[in-house]
Amino acid sequence: VQLQASGGGLVQAGGTLRLSCAASGRTFSNYDMAWFRQEPGKEREFVAAISSYSWSGGSTIYADSVKGRFTISRDNTKDTLYLQMNSLKPEDTAVYYCAAGIIGSSPNNYGYWGQGTQVTVSS
């Protein structure tokens, strides 16, 4: 499956952004999906994940740092994954990646990755 992330940009602290990840090439609905983020010089960090609807009805998990502020969702009719980010903080600044694989918080769970989209939150 090929993944294309978009929607990043520059926003002030407290603002909102919605990231999108368009999938193509294979059956999107069969994959558990996730968002990760990475700052320069740091390891890729788990943000949120959502299961495929085929077996668990789209259950979600979140990193503690984004719980209550970010919402992951998917539209299987559009083969698209979303990340709604509210109450953004400067520490949310990173390149955000979407990924497809098996739900979990480790990057090793995911075999397919998008190219990343930059999110910058100014204070």
Q: Which tags fit this structure?
A:
123 residues; mainly beta
- Low-confidence parts: none
Distance between the termini: 37 Å
Question: Helix and strand string, N-terminal first?
Answer: EEEEEHEEEEEE
Give the overall shape, derived from the CA principal axes.
Answer: globular
Backbone CA Rg: 13 Å
Mean pLDDT: 94
Number of helices: 1
Q: What structural class do helix, strand and pairing data support?
A: mainly beta
In helices, the fraction of residues equals under 10%
Oligomer: single chain
- Strand proportion: over 45%
Largest beta-sheet characterization:
7 strands, mixed
Count of strand segments = 11
Walk me through this protein's architecture.
This protein is mainly beta and 123 residues long. The strands form 2 sheets. Strands 2, 4, 5, 6, 9, 10 and 11 form a 7-stranded mixed sheet that branches. A hairpin with an 8-residue loop joins strand 9 and strand 10. The mean pLDDT is 94.
Helices and strands in order:
Elements: E1 2-6, E2 9-12, E3 17-24, E4 32-38, E5 45-50, H1 53-56, E6 60-62, E7 70-75, E8 80-85, E9 94-101, E10 110-113, E11 117-122
Parallel strand pairs: 2-11
Antiparallel strand pairs: 1-3, 3-8, 4-5, 4-9, 5-6, 7-8, 9-10, 9-11
Write a compact overview of the structure shown.
The chain has one helix and eleven strands. It has one helix at residues 53-56, and strands at residues 2-6, 9-12, 17-24, 32-38, 45-50, 60-62, 70-75, 80-85, 94-101, 110-113, 117-122.
